[in-house]
Amino acid sequence: MLKSRFQHNAALLVMLTLAGCGGGSGEEAPPPVQLPAPAPSPTPAPAPTPAPTPTPTPTPPPAASPRPDAANTGVPAGITLRSWSGPAYDGRSNLVIDGYDLPRPPDGGFYHFAGADVVLRNCRSQVSIQLSGPRSRIERCEIRGGISISGAADVVLEGNNVHGSTSDLIHITSDTGRIRNLMIRNNFLHSPEPACGAHADGIQVRGVENLTLENNAIDMGPWRQVCGDDALNAAIFFENANGGNSLIRIIGNYLNGAGYVLRLAPGRDQRIVDNRFGRDERYGLILNNSAPGDIVAASGNVRDDNGEAVPIPPP
Fold this sequence. Notes:
Elements: H1 2-21, E1 82-83, E2 89-90, E3 96-98, E4 100-102, E5 111-113, E6 119-121, E7 124-125, E8 129-131, E9 137-139, E10 142-145, E11 147-150, E12 156-158, E13 161-164, E14 170-173, E15 180-185, E16 188-190, E17 200-206, E18 208-214, E19 217-219, E20 225-226, E21 229-230, E22 232-238, E23 245-251, E24 254-256, E25 258-264, E26 270-273, E27 276-277, E28 281-288, E29 295-299, E30 302-303
Parallel strand pairs: 1-4, 2-5, 3-6, 4-7, 5-8, 6-9, 7-10, 8-11, 9-12, 10-13, 11-14, 12-15, 13-16, 14-17, 15-18, 16-19, 17-22, 18-23, 19-24, 22-25, 23-26, 24-27, 25-28, 26-29, 27-30
Antiparallel strand pairs: 20-21
């Protein structure tokens, strides 16, 4: 009997439990909440491809200046020259003589311009010209004779055709004052006509500080004597006079003829670079009377016809 009652109570307990699980209230369970799916992460835009770095175009070296000759020096073509009637000696400053033919003065001498800031340009002179004032210039002139620079600083000679001198084609001297800062560039110096008893140089230098000789053609021509004497001395001749020479630049010139083509003297800081030598010398190419250590650069000097190196001999 006890077993039967126990079984009855157990069955009743199971029924009550099942009834509670069924939600005896009769209401249905709410549907599950659907959470929205997370938005997909945006696809990053591709990084732009960097433009390639342009290869720099190499800068070509500057074209070498042409060798001076009768075609590219002196009075340019197309210029009509007027006749100059000024005095043989002129002391005026800021004088500009442009496009004139300078005849032989009545006394048969030469023209001497002594003022400062004198300019002769696009001219032809039948005689030599002397400059003794600072900051003077001679440009694109033809001169039958020579050019003398006496005690004048900051002078420029450029693009001139100088020939027929009875002595030096260009004469530089610090006789009346120290010459400084002298530029001689792109000139054609040739065909000297030395008188009996004289000697001729292409350029003679007697005292200067800071001289540049660049891209000049200095051609003394084939060796010859005048009145039985050696008359052609040197294409460039330095003398240790009037305070001496210093800061010398001889760069890219054509040099030919005379007893020695280049005659050097003592003087600090001399540079002799990229010059070309002809074959008309009589005794030798270079006579080096400088002092040890004076020449600080010497390279690229060659024979013009075959590129054979021309060394600077020791003092």
